[in-house]
Design a protein that fits this description.
Largest sheet: 7 strands, antiparallel
Radius of gyration: 25 Å
Bound molecules: zinc ion
Distance between the termini: 51 Å
Shape: globular
Strand content: 15-25%
C-alpha cells in the first residue's frame, strides 16, 4: 500500500503535531547546528562539513551522531507532507546538499570513518553503528522523497546501498556480517518498496539470515582487527545483547537491547511480508507474544534493566530500576504497525495504542522542550540521586542528551502519526487508531475519503464519515479496543450486531458505501483497576488505574510525599472529571484512599506485633504521560490495594 497522506485534526494529537513542527524540529535543528547554548554540544552538522572538506577539525560526538541528522530530516519530511514550509524545506535541502558533498566517490557515507580513516570502515560492525546510521539516512531519504518528490537524498542513499551491496553478501570476497545495531534491515525494505530494486530487499534478508550463524561473526571481526574494542567491555555482553545468539527464525524470546530487538523484529515482518516467508512471520508472532504477554510494562514500555538497556526474563518488570527507553516503546509501535499490516488483528493495535498514549509520549514534556530517555513507573527523586541502581533514572526530563537517540525518534514518530491510523488488506480498510483526521485512499481506482471526528482519549465517541464520488462495495474494519467491553457501532444510525461481524477484534462492515455514510462508534470509557499476572513480583497486591487507553499515576504534587504508603481500598470509587486547565486538558481520576500514619512510629525502624495505621486521603490520579510537567517529585503507577 502506498503511504497514505493523513491530515490530523484532533484535540489531543494536533497539539503534538504543532509542537513537533513549531518547537521540536526548530530546536533540534539548532542543537544539530550547535546553536543551543545550554544543551550538550552535538556537532552533527559540523561533522558533515569536516567530512566534506569544508571545515578543518575533529569528529565530535557519539559514533552514531550522523543518525541525529537523518532522524531530523525524516521528521522534517513527514512534517512537510501535511504542512508545506518552503523555508524549512530549503534548510533541509541545504543539509542534503552537504550530505551529498560528504559522500565518498564509491558511495560510502559515514562522517566518523570519513574523518577518522576510511581504512577502518566496516571493521567493527559490532560497535560502530555504520549500518545503523546508513539505515536512518535511508529512512530519511525515502520519507523526503515521498513528501517532496525530490530525489537527491534518495539517489545518495541508493548509491550508498549499492556500495553496501558490493561489500556484504554471501558471494566470495564479501564480508559475511551484519550490524551490531539493527536498523539497516527495515530501512532497506523501505528503499526496495520505493525503488523496486530487489537487491535492497535481498540485502535486508541477507543481514537478517546471517545473524546468529556460528561461528559468531563479531568474534571473527574482533580477532581480525587485533582484538580491539571501541566501547571497552562491550564484548562481555555476549551475543544475546544484539540478538545474535540464534538464527532469527529460531528465536523465541525477546532478549538483549530492547531497541535493537524491536527494530529487528520489525524488519523480520517486513521481509516476511515481501517474500511470503511464513516461517519468518511465525518467528515474529512468537517474539511478539513473548513481549506482550511476559515482558512489557503496562505503559507499553519495554526493557527491564539498565544493564545492556535490555530485556531480562519473563515477568521481571521492576518499576523503579526499569529502563523503558522511549526509543524502545517507539520501536514496539513500529513492530506492532508491521504485524498489523501482515495480519489485521486488534491485539497489535491495542499494544500500539498502549505504547503511543503512555510510554512514548511520556518521553517528551508537554512544551516539547525536554525529554526522557528512561521512563520509570515509580520514582523517588532521592533514590535517583543516592541509590546507584537508579542512577539512570532521571526524576525530570532533560534538555538534550549526549546520546540523543530519543528526542528525534519521538519527533519522527509524532510527525508521521497519520501513517499509523489506517491499514488496507484486500478489499477492507482498517481503522487501527481513533484520531481526528482526514485522508483519501484509492481502492481499486475509486477515491474514498475518510474523516474521523473524536475527542479520544477523553471520550470514546468516534464518528467516521465516508466520502465518495461513486458508491463502492468494500469492507470497513473498525477496531473494538481491548479495554472496551460495551462497544456499540452504528451505520447511519442503525446498530451493527458486533457478535456477527467481529473478526480478530475488528467489526467488519461490508456494504455498498454511499457518499456521506456515517459510522458511529460508542466506546464507553470507565476507569478500571488493572492487575498484573501474579508472577510479576513488582506488582502483586497492587493495581494500576486505566481509563480507555490511558494509564494513570499518582504524583507527589497532588498527593504529598511517600506515595508508597498510599493504599487504595477495594471499594473506593474512581471518579472521572475533565480538567481543562490542567496539563493541557486531561481527565483526572479521584478516589478516596488511605495513607500510612508515619508519625505514629516515632524513631522506631522496626516494631513487633504492631500494625500500620492509616488515615483517609483524597487521591488524584493524572495520566502517566503527563507526569512531572509541574513540580518535580515522587511518582507512582502501581499502587497497593487493600
Ligand atoms: Zn533512545
Amino acid at each position: 500500500m502506498a503511504k497514505l497522506k493523513v491530515k490530523i485534526n484532533d484535540p489531543f494529537w494536533s497539539k503534538y503535531d504543532a509542537l513537533v513542527r513549531d518547537v521540536v524540529i526548530p530546536y533540534q535543528r539548532d542543537v544539530l547546528n550547535d546553536n543551543v547554548a545550554d544543551a550538550e554540544p552535538s556537532s552533527a552538522i559540523r561533522n558533515f562539513r569536516i567530512a566534506a572538506g569544508e571545515e578543518v577539525g575533529e569528529y565530535y560526538g557519539m559514533v552514531f551522531q550522523d543518525s541525529d541528522v537523518a532522524k531530523w530530516l525524516e521528521a522534517v519530511a513527514y512534517s512537510l507532507e501535511n504542512h508545506p514550509n518552503p523555508e524549512l524545506e530549503k534548510e533541509a535541502d541545504e543539509i542534503i546538499d552537504l550530505i551529498g558533498r560528504a559522500q565518498q566517490p564509491d558511495g560510502y557515507l559515514n562522517t566518523y570513518f570519513i574523518i577518522n580513516g576510511l581504512d577502518k570502515r566496516w571493521t567493527n560492525l559490532h560497535e560502530c553503528h555504520e549500518l545503523y546510521c546508513a539505515g536512518h539516512m535511508i529512512e530519511a531519504a525515502v520519507a523526503y522523497y515521498e513528501a517532496t518528490g525530490k530525489r537527491k537524498l534518495l539517489d545518495i542513499v541508493c548509491k550508498f546501498a549499492d556500495h553496501m551491496d558490493s561489500v556484504f553478501g554471501p558471494e566470495e570476497g564479501k564480508i559475511k556480517g551484519y550490524p551490531g545495531h539493527q536498523e539497516i534491515e527495515l530501512a532497506l525494505v523501505k528503499l526496495y518498496r520505493v525503488t523496486g530494486n530487489k537487491r535492497y530487499l535481498n540485502l535486508a534478508k541477507y543481514f537478517l539470515d546471517e545473524r546468529g550463524k556460528k561461528p559468531y561473526f563479531f568474534d571473527i571481526e574482533w580477532e581480525k582487527r587485533g582484538k580491539k574494542e571501541f566501547w571497552p567491555g562491550h564484548r562481555s555482553r555476549g551475543p544475546e545483547y544484539e540478538q545474535s545468539h540464534l538464527p532469527v527464525r529460531e528465536q523465541t524470546e525477546a532478549v538483549g537491547h530492547a531497541v535493537r530487538a524491536v527494530y529487528m523484529y520489525s524488519a523480520m515482518v517486513d521481509v516476511a511480508m515481501e517474500t511470503g516467508d511464513e516461517e519468518l512471520l511465525q518467528a515474529c508472532r512468537r517474539l511478539w507474544n513473548n513481549i506482550v504477554y511476559k515482558r512489557m510494562y503496562i505503559t507499553g514500555a519495554i526493557g527491564s534493566q539498565v544493564h545492556g538497556e535490555s530485556f531480562t526474563f519473563d515477568y521481571d518488570l521492576p518499576n523503579d530500576t526499569v529502563y523503558a527507553e522511549t526509543c524502545a516503546a517507539i520501536g514496539l509501535v513500529f513492530f506492532a504497525n508491521r504485524m498489523l499490516q501482515a495480519e489485521p488483528k486488534s491485539q497489535y493495535a491495542d499494544v500500539m495504542e498502549r505504547a503511543l498514549y503512555n510510554g512514548v509520549i511520556s518521553g517528551m514534556s508537554l512544551d516539547g522542550k525536554r525529554f526522557f530517555y528512561v521512563n520509570p513507573l515509580e520514582v523517588d527523586p532521592e533514590a535517583c540521586e543516592k541509590n546507584g541502581n537508579m542512577e539512570h533514572v532521571k526524576p525530570v526530563r532533560q534538555k538534550w542528551f549526549a546520546c540523543a537517540c530519543c528526542p528525534p525518534n519521538v519527533a519522527r514518530l509524532l510527525a508521521s502519526l497519520g501513517h499509523y491510523i489506517y491499514g488496507v488488506k484486500d478489499d477492507t480498510i482498517y481503522t487501527h487508531l481513533y484520531i481526528g483526521s482526514s485522508t483519501e485512499l484509492d481502492m481499486g481506482g475509486t477515491r474514498i475519503g475518510i474523516t474521523q471526528n473524536t475527542n479520544y482519549p477523553w471520550d470514546g465517541k468516534v464518528v467516521i464519515t465516508i466520502n465518495l464520488d461513486v458508491s463502492k462495495e468494500l469492507g470497513l474494519g473498525v477496531r473494538i479496543p481491548g479495554w472496551c467491553n460495551e462497544a456499540k457501532v452504528s451505520v447511519n444510525g442503525e446498530q451493527v450486531d458486533l457478535a456477527k461481524v467481529t473478526v480478530d477484534g475488528y467489526a467488519i462492515i461490508k456494504r455498498n458505501w454511499q457518499d456521506g455514510d456515517k459510522v458511529e462508534l460508542d466506546l464507553p470509557m470507565k476507569p478500571v483497576r488493572m492487575r498484573a499476572n501474579p508472577l510479576v513480583k513488582a506488582d502483586i497486591g497492587k493495581v494500576a488505574i486505566q481509563n480507555g487507553p490511558i494509564v494513570y499515576c499518582l504524583e507527589e504534587v497532588d498527593n504529598g510525599p511517600n506515595l508508597h504508603t498510599i493504599v487504595l481500598p477495594k471499594e473506593a470509587e474512581l471518579e472521572v472529571s475533565y480538567r481543562k486547565d490542567l496539563l493541557g486538558g486531561v481527565n483526572v481520576i479521584r478516589a478516596q484512599g488511605e495513607k500510612a500514619m508515619i508519625g505514629e512510629w516515632g524513631s522506631a525502624l522496626y516494631k513487633a506485633n504492631t500494625s500500620i495505621e492509616y488515615q483517609s486521603i483524597k487521591l488524584t490520579f493524572i495520566p502517566y504521560y503527563a507526569w512531572v510537567n509541574r513540580e518535580p517529585g515522587e511518582m507512582l503507577v502501581w499502587i497497593r490495594e487493600k
